[in-house]
Design a protein that fits this description.
142 residues; mainly alpha; single chain
Length: 142
Amino acid sequence: MDEISIPTHLVIPAIISFGIILIIVLNWKKLILRNSKNLFWISLIVFFTFYGWIVGGAAYVDIMYQIELNSFDLDKDGLFGSNEITEEQKAAMKGLINDVGRNFSVFTGLFFAGILSFVSYLIGWGVKRYLKLKKNKKSYNL
């Protein structure tokens, strides 16, 4: 087998996601504490956290399958001879080449992270509205 190849189509979106989270967190006071659109920024953090987790996890699994498969190449020539092909090697090869789910995690991650961030926005909006109503009700009772 070849050396380990980094799946850049998975690693780059994961790095960008965590970079955006880092930028938002470093500007926490300006974006979240002093901003009226803080629910948007919190939802954005949720989106990029889950998206980075999904895509980064797929990259991790891909690299682990490559490492596992490379362990069966005893003479390190990049090919599997008859003495190197075992049931475990076949299972490792199947795990590496059946990668449709990992490769499409870039797109499915957008979908699931979008749903989770939308739900977090709705929950935050509901909590904010509840607290505002509770505060108004308390001020009327005084």
